[in-house]
């Protein structure tokens, strides 16, 4: 069901043959997980017309982690909402897992979102009156899972995000970083085809950001397709690929995914770069 | 500094004094330490290396005909090579800044293209540093160093954003409009 796709870029990259089991980049065999074709979203009309997203073509292969960066107002959040079926394009197409979704009816779209898309926002949007575990159970219950299965899955996910011991706490009893990890667990509840995150570390300090990045790295290693909108270069740097937006269009597309799957460095970079060693100079 | 001086001679032959003025303008307070002597030392070295030659200025705007320095063919080649080569992982802010100034001045490269290339280069380094940081304990010695490296690269990338804004405002794409 999953195959290892070595995506090695650059001149001096060496092939990654030591891939420790379980950490190889994995991807579903069929087509891109997400596809945008001529995607356009305008707001307002006449002289107040804004082209928030302006003719974006984008393929996100299954198993890829993609970071979207760019100045404030360039259309990142709008793009993410279009990709996740939270908003409708003015023009163009959105394909999710090989299925066109932009012209689905409201109910079909809502059902698809629930099952196939996991959202993570800057503000965690957890239910205040529900415990961490109940928050994580909710999407599975809404998608029709049995209470037992939902409970089981929630426990598993909270363990995965390192919060098993906080399962019964209310969001107000958790730190910002912990809340965000609960939100990520919730996003994963229905094994979504894609996880879409908008500034997931926007409110976090660097230690909490580290925790989230470790988590994303594990998701990536497990083959989860992930699109992250971020202003934080360090978050973007952990993705397989970075696209930058300018005025609603994609201005740059950079691959960073040499040498993936390597959890413990043995030297060498595989990025086609010069290696971290080049940052150090022994002369004088 | 040799490369910067060469690049500033691309548009037209210049007198050492003018070069110094141009550099001082680009460097601001950082250029205060730069004296005329240093420019002449550099020019003399470049002349010995066959990269520049001294010529008589042909039509002085004012005053007597001065000696100006002009690029030789070898000098032109070297500037072109410098423009094309990447800044390298340890290049500092002032060095890259001067490269952008020289690129715009000489018309040999689009500053925005240099910014893009630099961004990719730094992003790749940051990717390595950040991934390595994730694989190390934050409180370990190596983890601490990686944190410092990642933060510096991040700062460089943020500065490039500012470069992009400033240079796109200055140089309307396609129009090679010097500002001398
Ligand atoms: N509901 C709306 N009505 C009108 N204009 C909107 C609406 N939502 C977004 N816009 C406009 O669309 C453009 C893109 O907005 P968007 O929120 O996608 O930017 P962004 O890249 O996410 O910015 P930021 O980094 O600040 O979050 C902006 O000019 C914004 O003002
Ligand atoms: Mg936004």
Automatic annotation (TrEMBL), chain A:
The keyword ATP-binding applies. Residues 1-27, 251-272 are annotated as: Disordered. It comes from the Bacteria. SUPFAM superfamilies: P-loop containing nucleoside triphosphate hydrolases. Keywords: ATP-binding, Nucleotide-binding, Transport. It holds the Pfam family ABC_tran. Residues 34-272 form the ABC transporter domain. The keyword ATP-binding applies. This is ABC transporter domain-containing protein. It comes from Microbispora siamensis.
TrEMBL record, chain B:
Pfam families: PadR. Coiled coil: none annotated. It comes from the Bacteria. Residues 5-80 form the Transcription regulator PadR N-terminal domain. InterPro entries: Tscrpt_reg_PadR_N, WH-like_DNA-bd_sf, WH_DNA-bd_sf. This is PadR family transcriptional regulator. It comes from Microbispora siamensis.
